[in-house]
Amino acid sequence: MWRFLPLLMLATPLAASPLAEVLCAPTAQMQTKLTQQFGTTRTAVGMRSPEQVMEVWTDARGDWTMVVRYATGTSCIVAMGEDWVDIRAPAKG
Q1: How far apart are alpha carbons 7 and 15 in whole angstroms?
Q2: Which residues pair with 61 in a beta bridge?
């Protein structure tokens, strides 16, 4: 999970906690790193406001990353963790 940090720190110094500072990048660059470099998939999205969309990116191991995507073209990682589990009941079809 913490493998994101060295590659996404774009002029944001680390404090005591790995996410004491928010990690931001242009949205296209953020999406490329999350998909191609780290093998994650956007698995959930929700509108926070007309200017912000919240996204959850997960990988096969269960690592997850929460990203806020701004209408300005910037995306920021705001939280990361492990053991993501989708607890919704499977859709009946």
Answers
A1: 16
A2: none
Question: Which residues does residue 26 pair with via DSSP β-bridges, in sequence order?
Answer: 74
Task: Compute how many other C-beta atoms are within 10 angstroms of the C-beta atom of residue 21.
Answer: 13
The predicted-structure confidence for 18-74, as pLDDT tens digits, reads as follows 555 668 999 999 999 999 988 999 999 999 999 999 999 999 999 999 999 999 999
pTM: 0.73
If one counts every other C-beta atom within 10 angstroms of the C-beta of residue 18, the result is: 13
| Sole residue written with tokens 């969309």 | 53
Segments of the chain assigned E as strands: 23-26, 41-49, 52-58, 64-70, 74-81
Whether the CB-CB separation of 41 and 59 falls below 8 Å is answered with yes
